Amino acid sequence: MVAETKLYDSLSIKPESTQDEIKKAYRKAALKWHPDKNKDNPAASEKFKEVSQAYEILSDPEKRKVYDQYGLEFLLRGGREAPQPGPGGSGGMPFEGGMPAGFNMGGMGGMPGGTRTFHYSTGGGGNGGFNFSDPGSIFSEFFKQGGAAMGDDDDIFASFGGGGMGGRSSGGGGAGGFGGSRGSRYKESNGGPRHRAPTPEVTTVERPLPVTLEELFKGTKKKMKIRRKTFDPTGKRSMEEKTLEIDIKPGYKVGTKIKFKGVGDQEEGGTQDMHFIINEKEHPLFKREGDDLRATIEIDLKEALTGWSRTISTIDGRQIKPSAGGPTQPGHEITYPELGMPKSKKPSERGNMIVQVKVKFPTSLTPAQKTRLKEIL
């Protein structure tokens, strides 16, 4: 038998509910009453505050034990000894003189049972009593501790918890610090002053962008269709398709980030940014080294000793003919200036094209071939 059921009633659960049931009830109620989803309903902020503060007590086994035994008034006033029964007997309120500062109950005048409404603020009872945390902080910690992984509407709650609470600073006013702002977070000592903690920024989503070497040489524009989570005018979670045009400049290198602001999922603190990161596709001939391009050609031992010639294409389609009269050492390089990649900061300038020679040696020789080579060399 509990002293009162006000906090359980606010979460629409029974006093014998388990911790998992309490978490699920808070999750459902927080989604229903969150101010960001009820911008046209001023009462939603107060309801959100009530369910958050009810969860703060009931999710803590020690606070819940005190609450179940003596009631919220005793907890808010910081009582250290069991209160004596009031005029109403064992079911009466543990203190006379009305509810403590910051707490107001209507309906049945504070007697347990029956229908009643209640409202309380973050001010607490003072004099060593319990101080409620800011509702935004309670909400944030819930997700930080894995609350977003519960239930079957994870895509909805991901908007609040996917990257932490959003990045807007708090203006302080309104119910529980939600007046005109979102995502306020506080730390507090037991009975002491609350200190504002920094709110995290809106998350950034990074995606690889595969590009060919020819596209990086000439520059190109790519259209990328994305799907993002948004809220419709009624506050319902929905999916939206959006097409982005990505401008790839000549000479961009691997790792270059092309940034779009405010085009991703809508979160608690705003809308996600998206960064597309250049990822160079493998080329059949060239390997890029900064602004230079390296090509490798293979010749056999006979060519290495007596001379060779090849025809290869440059990155812009021209034909060149590297050659040597021999002997050619393994690893020999021929450099062609200004036939490499354009320099991103100076597009009129280019790096070099380097042709490296790889000599293919025979895997075996007959005795007669060895003798002949010894005579020649």
How does this model look, in words?
This protein has 377 residues and is an alpha+beta fold. It is 24% helix and 25% strand. The protein is built from ten helices and 19 strands. It has helices at residues 6-10, 19-33, 43-58, 61-70, 72-76, 135-144, 154-161, 213-218, 301-306, 367-376, and strands spanning 103-105, 118-120, 186-188, 194-196, 204-211, 220-231, 237-248, 257-260, 273-280, 286-289, 292-300, 308-309, 312-313, 319-320, 323-324, 333-336, 342-343, 346-350, 353-360. The chain has a four-stranded mixed beta sheet. Strand 17 and strand 18 (346-350) form a beta hairpin. The termini are far apart.
Question: Major sheet: order of its strands?
Answer: 10-11-19-16
| Ends apart, CA distance between termini | 105 Å
Instruction: State mean pLDDT (0 to 100 scale).
Output: 76
Helix content: 10-25%
Q: What structural category arises from helix and sheet content?
A: alpha+beta
Quaternary structure of the protein: single chain
Q: Extract low-pLDDT stretches.
A: 86-126, 152-199
| Residue share in β-strands | 25-35%
Q: How would you spell out the order of helices and strands?
A: HHHHHEEHHEEEHEEEEEEHEEEEEEEEH
Shape: elongated
Number of strands: 19
Q: How many individual helices?
A: 10
Largest sheet: 4 strands, mixed
Structural Rg: 36 Å
